[in-house]
Amino acid sequence: MPIRRFGGHRSLVSQSPRLSYGYKKMNVSRSGYRVFSANSTTACTELAKKITERLGVELGKSVVYQESNTETRVDVKESVRGQDIFIIQTIPRDVNTAIMELLVMAYALKTSCAKNIIGVIPYFPYSKQCKMRKRGSIVCKLLTSMLAKAGLTHIITMDLHQKEIQGFFSFPVDNLRASPFLIQYIQEEIPDYRNAIIVAKSPSAAKRAQSYAERLRLGLAVMHGEAHHSESDMADGRNSPPLFRTTTGHTGLELPLMMAKEKPPITVVGDVGGRIAIIIDDIIDDVEDFVAAAEILKERGAYKIYIMATHGLLSAEAPRLIEESAIDEVVVTNTVPHEVQKLQCPKIKTVDVSMILAEAIRRIHNGESMAYLFRNIAVDD
């Protein structure tokens, strides 16, 4: 053994390979990261496997299952102490079960001394319930509080329904965009896309559609009319309290009555005749509105109709309605599992966004700037 002198005294310093290796191993472990899937079903782990393949790591060993009484149980099969842990959770049809899986896994990792717990939730559930409706509740705010309490320290998501939802969180949120992938699909997979026009299905979607139109150097059309919208002003509490009620004594101030809104017949602002119509939206769930919009666009002379959306929930009878409609193609990303719907309707196409999710994970773990992932991204995307 080599001899070193400390304060005039001779000292033996062990150079044991075992001790040296153990010290280095601990450092590597503390600076490492693991990627887990919060759902063990094949459809939900598909995106997680694509992300880990791009990162060159293995998917973390864990088991997520339901007890006989439908309680969620999570077993993490490896050490996570001192590591950055990324939990990928895609939201299948059973939304509430998926939320519980994410919460239980996050809490299990928190109590196992994980350094940071980052949730990768490409489609954030309950994002449509981000406004007060009469005597209801802002469920999206409740969910963000539950995630923070369970132990999450960061969220990676994609195309939040309303960007203001980021203000509900008490920790950092990276709201990635799918628009570069959908624009690339338009340019490479739609023949003669230069003869297309971008269509907003409603005035509320006009800003997003305008952003696509400006980057593709295409025209813009906006649909307006009596189509049903789940987020209409008639449900925002303006009818509460009732206009008339029996009171005794002083009646208080008499407020002017608001006239009821009456939408005109559905119209298209813009010329779609002889063009390819590309409808842009963030979520496609119940497709009745899209089918009705496609019929109007056909009547106005559009010869092909595409729908581009980030999140393809495609609930209920959506595949059958799309197949029987005037819609030529529905293009969505793989933020939500929809393989069954694709088998039912060949018009549904998928764009893979695992590349940007994997790069976000890598950058967050390495402490690199996320600005590169938002280059040339407009605020209204």
Automatic annotation (TrEMBL):
Domain Ribose-phosphate pyrophosphokinase N-terminal: residue ranges: 40-151
Entries under SMART domains matching the protein: Pribosyltran_N (SM01400)
Function of the molecule: Seems to play a negative regulatory role in 5-phosphoribose 1-diphosphate synthesis.
A biological process from GO: 5-phosphoribose 1-diphosphate biosynthetic process
Keywords: Nucleotide biosynthesis
Record keyword Cell membrane present: no
GO cellular component: cytoplasm; ribose phosphate diphosphokinase complex
Protein name, as recorded: Phosphoribosyl pyrophosphate synthetase associated protein 1
Family that this chain belongs to: Belongs to the ribose-phosphate pyrophosphokinase family.
Gene source species: Seriola lalandi dorsalis
Presence of keyword Repeat: no
GO MF term (any one): ribose phosphate diphosphokinase activity
